Queue: 2 jobs
Job 1
Amino acid sequence: MSKYLLVVDFQPGVCEAPMSQWQPDEITAHMDYYRLLHDELVASGELVQSEVLTGPELAAVVTSDGRGSTVVTDGPFQEFKEWLAGFQVVEVETRARALEIAARLSAVPGPGGVAIQQPIQVREVMEQAPRDTGAMDDWLQTVGDGS
Amino acid sequence: MPDDVEDLLRELSPQVLGTLGRRYGDFDAAEDAVQEALLAAATHWPRDGVPERPRGWLLQTAERRLVDQWRSEQSRRRREQETAVRDGPAPDVPDQDDTLVVLFLCCHPALTSASAIALTLRAVGGLTTAEIAKAFLVPESTMAQRISRAKRTVQDSGEPFALPSPAQRPTRLRQVLQVLYLIYNEGYTSSSGPALNRTDLADEAIRLARLVHHQLPDDPEVTGLLALMLLTDARRAARTDAAGELVPLAAQERSRWNHPRIAEGVALLDSAIGSGSVGEYQLQAAIAALHDRAPDAAATDWPQILALYGLLERITSSPVVTLNRAVAMAMVDGPASGLAVLDDLGDRVTGHRVDVVRAHLLEMAGDRAGAATHFDAAARRTSNLPEQHYLTQQAARLRSSPTD
């Protein structure tokens, strides 16, 4: 089992229209799709965490020299589409399964029920321990038996 | 809760579950009922004292919960089982230890290894869902869902509450051993920080392996696995330094090894090896024993280790074993021979481990720049955090002092 972070940002995919210009029932269908997928991942015991983030207006950037001089500013001033919108952490048996879940996220419906094909970034989370016997044998070599 | 009460509860837990399971055939419901009975005992026993017949107490309490549970469901829908319960006392079940039966069910082939691990820790290990979730760094709700799905899968498989048939038993036992070894792995590498409580898992895996060994004392691979765990675990204290960083075997302070544990592992191994069939756990344990018995790294019996890896390679046909043999070969015959084994391997092994081994062998051969490059490559590709630190340090060490 490995944990994967699935990153959702504001890249539009094939749908350029912002959500405020969609039909109300299109927004409902969009949200329902996410909710069903969420429930499915909860039921399968694969969902570790799922969060949606507030927008740029509430964001801050902090810098510090470690001696009490801390500066808090607005920002970062990146392009809107690069803002992190939310993320899920799933723990799954294989990498293929993580990619499959990411594909489901990407296929969320937009206007006209068309999948918006938003790009989803998939990142594996670092482990503290080997995850199977093969990795365990490798590990014994690194830490121990062979080197 | 006092340790002795906890030990007793965890020993009795799978026995009570086994008896209930056999009586009513409902693994899922029986497991829930046993968990509730364990919680009740954990509350009452430290206060009121351990009852005279603790197993009977647990069984009765769990059985009452089970019947209550069915009664409450009765109002919603009819169940076949409740008829059986209402119709009078269940057929008398002989008083036997069903721990092994429960363990075989928990390591059911229909389960993924992660599910089997979680279910084993709860149903056989007597750990709570919260404890298991904490050990695997996932929310309790995630783990609860995983366990209840696993139980349903076992239930739906229709497998009876009995030991697998003699024909199936060797395959099923291998699965049990693999699950125990994986539980051990989870605890093995933890030192401090977020994974602190995982060390408990190594202890738990050893406890469970002892339990299986107690029931199947003549199975050489069961003995081999227990020996392997003990012989590896004996080095636990020396495996990390004060800062929590990994210390490779050759640099470990051998006085910090657990020598009684080594003696126990070696004795177990000797009894298994003498008994005939040789399997992979025994061979791995034999290799671990050779390391453990060397008074210092230079005294390690590498020719013998090389021979054992050769045997292991034949049994498992695993390219990972071949990688290990390359290292042993280098120790016996020099780095060029080890690198030749690696070259023969071609692309049968992918992943960072090839780079780790190549880096070690190149360093032995005096190619520090080449070694650093491969340590870097390995560090970029491992998904294991302590190992990444170790590999990055190795690359930095080789670059910072070009000549020793």
Note: The first helix of chain A runs from residue 24 to 43.
Job 2
Amino acid sequence: MDLTRLAARRTAVLAVEVPGWSRTRCALEQDVRARGWRLAGSPADADLLVVCGRPGARLTAAVDHVWSQLPGPRARAEVTTADDVPAVLDGAAAELADGAAQRRDAAGRPADPEPGTTAAGDDGMGDMDMDGDSGHSGDMDMDDDPGDADGDHASGDGDMDMDDDSGEGGGDDSGDGDMDMDMDMPMPAGIGLAGAGGDDQLPDPDGLDMDVLHVPLGPVLPHWPAGLLLHTTLQGDLVVAARAEVLLPADDAPPDPPVHGTPAGRWDAVATLLVLAGWDDAAVRAARVRDGLLAGGQPPEAERLTRRITRSRLLRWSLRGLGRLPEGDAHDRLRHWLTGTGQRRSTELSAVAELVTGLDLATARLVVASLDLDTADRVTVPVGAGS
Amino acid sequence: MAYLSLAAMFGLAVSGVLLAYLLHRRTAVAPDAVASLPFLSGWRPAEHALSRFEARYYPMTLLFLAFDVEMLYMYPWATVVASIGTSAIVEMFVLLGVLMTGVLWAWREGALRWT
């Protein structure tokens, strides 16, 4: 079967960046493009999972969960310096084309999906204690009160224990909880259904309360700041509350200098924002300019591309008024990146959460991309009790 | 004889589907699909994806269908009711009564209550 060899020529790569390894990620993207491969948007779309850097414990857990979601043939690699990228990708390509090993890997996979852990670090009940106070600035402890918002859920059937590590999570729904009447929430596959209510519920004038959903954005998400985890509470597709934190790397010693704050870093931010705004062509060109700058050159097409991007009316309409800060909105920041006139300033995580609250998901992603957060460069600020 | 060509086409279609299925079973690294939870940036979903599908629309849809079927029968009925006379009117109103029973039942079950 040489189908695998044929398919490996168009490998889809899901890149995960650890805070501090932006340089490695840029090198990876460049190499992927040079090979004629492509970047994947989700694990179902990916053949190869590449972690850029050394992730810390929680980041590793998220990456492992995504790894369990990759359909075979699949390969996984970790790369820590920009120079290692070509060798690592060669190895991964060989691994993907190795049919016998892929069959062994596929045969050894469990029949039930990996349960994983919820982003809130709770017991998998999705309870409503995600209080929207975004007063955490990067501290890691979760205020996870075990008391549920709506009475007790202990319905007394034994096979519904909520431990994440009990291997529950699909398949056997034998005797599940829809049968007893005091269970107010059926649990398909051990995951509860959303309901209205909780602290973040917006009152509806018509009395048609919408379900409240808790959706984590990041850390494994293309075109997203490295290691950023944004806990969002959604109603429909509106973010009604948010809280941001940064998942840390294992050790604070990335070998390569960061691209943030350099001209290449600005073009990287431009490329990310353009992809999310839906202008793939210009985004790829911006990424090429970035790669040229990283290689130490002065790409001649930067001038023309700058003119083309600033001229675009559609982009101006898309970005105007998003993520208003004292010094301007998303489009102003994009212009500053292009002209190199921007000032580096620190953004508090709580400010990020406030900016995306009240927007729909797509707009929230644009706003986060327009902030060009450098998650590797963190300062812990004390937070007052009342904030 | 006409049915022979029909059977041949049917056989061709079925064998094509079977062939594609067998090809998949032979060439995939594992014949069965991988079971995985939805992709949520590497976390377990806090709420089931089923939540996105609002179940309250479906009773409403059934109610709409009840009225819709009434209309469907009433178009042809309206063209002949004058020539047939009383019996047609009685029959139609029996049908309306049957469908209205369903509507009343759905009403009692709370299909029209949103919350």
Note: Residues 56-109 of chain B form one domain.
